[in-house]
What we know:
The complex is a heterotetramer, with 2 copies of chain A and 2 copies of chain C.
Chain A: E1 3-9, E2 18-21, E3 26-30, H1 37-47, E4 77-85, E5 100-108, E6 113-117, E7 120-122, H2 124-133, H3 139-142, E8 143-144, H4 148-154, H5 161-167
Antiparallel strand pairs in A: 1-2, 1-4, 4-5, 5-6, 6-7
Chain C: H1 2-24, E1 28-33, E2 44-49, E3 56-57, H2 63-80, E4 85-89, H3 97-110, E5 115-119, H4 123-128, E6 131-136, E7 144-147, E8 159-161
Parallel strand pairs in C: 4-5
Antiparallel strand pairs in C: 1-2, 2-3, 6-7
Helix pairs in contact in C: 1-2
Bound molecules: adenosine-5'-triphosphate (2 copies) and magnesium ion (MG) (2 copies).
Amino acid sequence: MKIKRLEIIGFKSFVDKVVLDFQQGVTGVVGPNGCGKSNIVDAIRWVMGEQNARSLRGKSMEDVIFGGSETRKPHGMAEVSLIFDNEDGLAPPAFAEYAEIMVTRRLYRSGESDYLLNKTPCRLLDIAELFMDTGVGRRAYSIIEQGKIGFILNAKPEDRRFLIEEAA
Amino acid sequence: MKIKRLEIIGFKSFVDKVVLDFQQGVTGVVGPNGCGKSNIVDAIRWVMGEQNARSLRGKSMEDVIFGGSETRKPHGMAEVSLIFDNEDGLAPPAFAEYAEIMVTRRLYRSGESDYLLNKTPCRLLDIAELFMDTGVGRRAYSIIEQGKIGFILNAKPEDRRFLIEEAA
Amino acid sequence: TRKRFKETFEQVNIKFQQIFPRLFHGGRAELQLTDSDDLLETGIDIIAQPPGKKLQGINLLSGGEKALTAVALIFAIFQIKPSPFCLLDEVDAPLDEANIGRFNEMVREMSEISQFIIITHNKRTMEMADTLYGVTMQEPGVSRLVSVKINEFQESGARRPAPVA
Amino acid sequence: TRKRFKETFEQVNIKFQQIFPRLFHGGRAELQLTDSDDLLETGIDIIAQPPGKKLQGINLLSGGEKALTAVALIFAIFQIKPSPFCLLDEVDAPLDEANIGRFNEMVREMSEISQFIIITHNKRTMEMADTLYGVTMQEPGVSRLVSVKINEFQESGARRPAPVA
Ligand SMILES: Nc1ncnc2c1ncn2[C@@H]1O[C@H](COP(=O)(O)OP(=O)(O)OP(=O)(O)O)[C@@H](O)[C@H]1O
Ligand SMILES: Nc1ncnc2c1ncn2[C@@H]1O[C@H](COP(=O)(O)OP(=O)(O)OP(=O)(O)O)[C@@H](O)[C@H]1O
Ligand SMILES: [Mg+2]
Ligand SMILES: [Mg+2]
């Protein structure tokens, strides 16, 4: 299931809504230090279900909500949507009539958190199942965040199993 | 005490003798991946008394001896000499008549190891004292090996003290 | 699952042994189980020999050689069980010109099957991409997206390698 | 020694607060003791605010911002207790064009007092050096040294940044 589009608002440095359309082939993301490139990777991992705030560089999950800048006040909510292309009809039967499948995750400062599938509230479990069935969820080796290469190299041999386990 | 020259033979990938003359100002060291640049840093740290093989990327100290390649057999000994300029006469009184001070470390495959000051055998302690007296020895913050920046950033706050302690 | 782990490990190992020499332009490498009798707990060791050098554990390798070896492993797993997309954040940072060239070549090849999203500061990697997004912070602390034409990436914070000897 | 640690810490902190805005072209940062009552065991926290952003612990900073913050700390300690020489191995790897420029400027300045030996793949850093040594492995596994003229560094594995927007 190919990624069609990523929509980010209120997540880390993306306080204003940003839409990335993903094409076939290779998409390069460039820009100066600190401009937000890795935050895009964090947004994708977060909407795919990442539960560990520290692996997103935060101390608590609230840290992913835009916290303010010199010119902007902090935001009350972070929302990321990942839109998949189902033109090839390979998604699970439940989605057979959808040309697009939209996965959305929201987090409010209150701690309240929502998951939505095609804008309908659902459980994290439903999203996890969708990702598992479509082979999209194998984040251990398909998402290599900044510093992960170093982690793999410095890891004890036992701490590298997860890469093979994810593919098995 | 400025560094004048570094001589390396049999140490890691420097199986043939290599001499680096160090100038004033900024010396850049360049070359492709794996050609030996960081091995030069390791050589300097080793001749200055580094005792921890793992911090030189080895499993045991024997790993710093040239271990062979497609075209060369392994070497029997590693030797590194660091030659300091004492033109300003700032070295300890014992060295007052020397224009140059040469510190040499050797390691044989047998495990036998030598330290020499101006080609005269001495103890590691004598070398450590020389470095301490001349302020050359503050390796914690004056030698930043590849990956050390990451170490400092990921370290627990208690594991960063050593930087200040070295300067204190 | 013990069986699946072993099968996957062996398939990945075969791929890894093919991919390493492609990225390194020679040499060889392989994965080894630290305890092949205990498939539930065993670790995974990597031994590697860049072209012309000695076969040993990866600890003595250079920064760039280590990184490229890890990339070979990631690509090997990816080719055994491809995901629809792959995200790589600055994995080319420690690589020299020649290695970046071979890395880019493999990414292009694999991008025929999967979408690749590559974050980079490297000009040659940018030239390899089909589309480029520039991320900027005109307003401090606020990220915006701009679409970058390939001939404009000069203004995108790019760093470019020069040819290696 | 407790007293010396505290004095050194405070001197370094003052320098660090000056150097950070130089390297970041603005913003501010400071060091904080995790336990100022226990000077023998206390840790050292770093809080930083790149220009226009929010002051917080360094964990949320970008790869390049973190690296540059650590460099500011190293330079601060170095300026309080200079060594005759300073060796930096690829510390500029995660930095973009603009940050590399300010980093190089500070190295040049400090090199009036101390010798700097800088390992780099970056063309602008090479241009800043007074002397360049090239390390090669014509014979695989065997390192040799060549002296590189500044206009020849094209053949040294260099990678060059392009100007940032
Ligand atoms: N919750 C938040 N609110 C506001 N800003 C945030 C938040 N979380 C992170 N940031 C900011 O995002 C910036 C980091 O962005 P990111 O890691 O994406 O940079 P980058 O483009 O990958 O840079 P580099 O090239 O250095 O890796 C930091 O400056 C950080 O302060
Ligand atoms: N004892 C040894 N005998 C022979 N070769 C060795 C020995 N120890 C290390 N090497 C080789 O030295 C090489 C690493 O060199 P080094 O780390 O200096 O590279 P580098 O120039 O810093 O590269 P990079 O730009 O990737 O950081 C490795 O290929 C390693 O196999
Ligand atoms: Mg980043
Ligand atoms: Mg190196």
